[in-house]
Amino acid sequence: MTRPQNDPSAAAVQSAFDELGRLSFAEHSLDSVLQTVTALAGRVLPGEPVTSVTILRERGPATVAASGRLADDLDQEQYRLGDGPCLSAARTGVPAAIPDTRAATAWAELAAAAAARGCDTVLSIPLPVQERVQGALNVYGRASTAPVDRTRELVSRFASYAVVPVSNMYLYETAVERAEHLEAALDSRAVIDQAKGILMERFKLTADQAFQALARISMETNTKVREVAERFVQSGEFPSA
Length: 241
Known about the structure:
Blueprint: H1 8-21, H2 30-44, E1 50-57, E2 60-66, H3 69-81, H4 85-92, E3 96-98, H5 108-116, E4 119-126, E5 134-142, H6 148-203, H7 207-221, H8 225-235
Antiparallel strand pairs: 1-2, 1-5, 3-4, 4-5
Organism: Blastococcus tunisiensis
Protein name: GAF domain-containing protein
Domain ANTAR: 172-233
């Protein structure tokens, strides 16, 4: 498809697409990716937008990143109400919107709260479904003077493209965090097993008895079992088992 050569907004949006496509995991964090998305959104979209990312977790929805207080506050309002574009998009995988918060029939309570905060439009685009992650990229437009249909078209195009690097970076950082937690867990298990082995040899205990001895000191001193094990392995000193 050939893009109109005399449409400056189309050229600006395409330029933003190109910049988003060049984002590198090695050079960015989730926060910096969102900051980039926000900066580009402000450059190419009407309505002085702020953005956020909603992720659905077992304990409930959460905003994992937001470019401004308005976005976070309106996310929280939707979590309180139990419904809204961000939750709908995240749950169904279908984009959801309030094109005009001052003339909304759906999500009327949220629309009223958004209008009172100076937010004219709300659009949420679902994150691509990967590794069972459900979420949405939310765009809150302020002081929009462009026609509603044109605004929605531009925001939809931009958000549909921006959601990919945001989603991928979230998954990348989540994977790194899980790996770090796994490494820490393996390190803890290793030192606890080492301490158990010393106790078993020194006091002729079973594996279960050795762990119970470590757990008893942990409870008495209000210290993690791993820390009790580390001290014992390093010092060789342990209360009577």
